[in-house]
Design brief:
Length: 355
């Protein structure tokens, strides 16, 4: 549906620098695919969306949509709808007029318009709000009007720039699942921007992780989480315990002398071993190696306990213990020694050149 080839955008800033907001981006978005751009603030997510929609002109590279080269086409001639980061509703129009605007431009009859506006508002949980003005709505409600306005035209390609950021956690999680279902049922390709890793993992077919205008990895949520390509991806998605060292056989030895066992064989090089916090167990498990850790902090977050501790060598580690296993945490106190067990086959190795 969309292909970017070597997309590069250099901004000159008022401070007199030139900034590579996009630095040679190659990416393909399939038909009916939900792809999420994920990365820290300022990494180029909005710029990438705007390169697709045409609001940003590339310095080099190409944008191809549905088989057609877009370089010479202004935004209004590209087969794309956008939900902007700052929602950008027309303030002088009612909610109903905002949502139905594209249908009016396309000369859809008043009766059909009214019906589709009502359906679109129902979709985003704003039934009956047609006659309000944007300023008579909360921020989260305005954001949902913007979403309804983009969905009503049933585009083949929808670009969404943090469309759920103004919603509270419960509404946000409901909307995530609804949007995902809607995208799938209507067969729309979504390019979705968020800096919320949980949201990216929940909604996406694939996630593209960006940093400094470059793609770090594009893959399914599971592959990104379980097999991050480098330490940036490992640290940006999920919490991580990273051990740099030398792999030899099935052991990684760190500079300070800790040994981490792992399941990959035949790796004899500099690596970073990754152990996710949920892969530590506090109760002794037959055949699992363990690290000696002094517990420094125990935080209860509802569904789990987050433990922070330090190894003998002074390395800070974290472990997540499901609340259902509270018995293993119950007896622990700050400053106490504990053994953190792990399954070597759950240890992921990142090669030094990728790290
Ligand atoms: N018109 C512009 N002129 C100069 N620099 C710009 C311009 N637009 C964006 N930038 C810079 O380009 C970089 C990428 O910006 P972009 O808006 O794409 O980031 P983002 O990933 O969407 O961030 P956020 O998560 O905060 O929305 C930033 O460093 C930003 O300051
Ligand atoms: Mg942005």
């Amino acid at each position: 549906m969309v292909r970017l080839e070597g997309a590069t955008k250099i901004f000159s800033t008022p401070e007199g620098q030139s900034l590579r907001a996009l630095d040679g981006i190659d990416i393909d978005v399939g038909r009916n695919e939900f792809i999420t751009l994920l990365g820290p603030s300022g990494c180029g997510k909005t710029t990438l969306l705007q390169a697709i929609s045409g609001f940003v002109e590339l310095d080099s590279g190409r944008v191809i949509i549905d088989g057609h080269e877009m370089s010479d086409r202004p935004p209004y001639r590209r087969p794309v709808n956008t939900v902007f980061q700052n929602y950008a509703l027309f303030p002088h129009m009612s909610v109903g007029e905002n949502v139905g605007y594209s249908l009016e431009v396309a000369r859809v009859t008043k009766a059909e318009r009214t019906e589709r506006v009502a359906a679109a508002l129902r979709m985003v949980g704003l039934e009956g709000m047609e006659n309000r003005r944007p300023r008579q709505l909360s921020g989260g409600q305005q954001q949902r009007v913007a979403l309804a306005r983009a969905l009503i035209a049933r585009p083949k390609l929808l670009l969404l720039d943090e469309p759920l950021s103004a919603l509270d956690k419960n509404l946000r999680e409901t909307m995530q699942l609804e949007l995902k279902t809607l995208q799938h049922d209507l067969g729309i390709s979504f390019v979705f921007v968020t800096h919320d890793q949980q949201e990216a993992l929940t909604m996406s077919d694939r996630i593209a992780v960006l940093s400094n205008g470059r793609i770090q990895q594009v893959d399914t949520p599971r592959a990104i989480y379980d097999h991050p390509a480098n330490t940036f991806v490992a640290s940006f998605i999920g919490a991580s315990n990273l051990f740099e060292g030398q792999a030899d056989g099935d052991v990684v030895t760190t500079a300070e002398g800790a040994s981490i066992r792992h399941g990959s064989t035949g790796t004899n090089s500099r690596v970073t071993a990754l152990i996710r916090p949920e892969h530590f167990f506090l109760d002794a498990t037959e055949g699992y190696p363990a690290l000696d850790v002094v517990v420094e902090q125990i935080v209860f977050v509802g569904s789990s306990f987050e433990l922070f501790g330090r190894t003998e060598q002074g390395r800070r580690l974290s472990a997540h213990v499901p609340a259902a296993r509270r018995a293993t945490v119950g007896a622990l106190e700050q400053g106490q020694k504990s053994r953190w067990y792990y399954d070597p086959s759950a240890v992921h190795l990142i090669r030094a050149e990728a790290a």
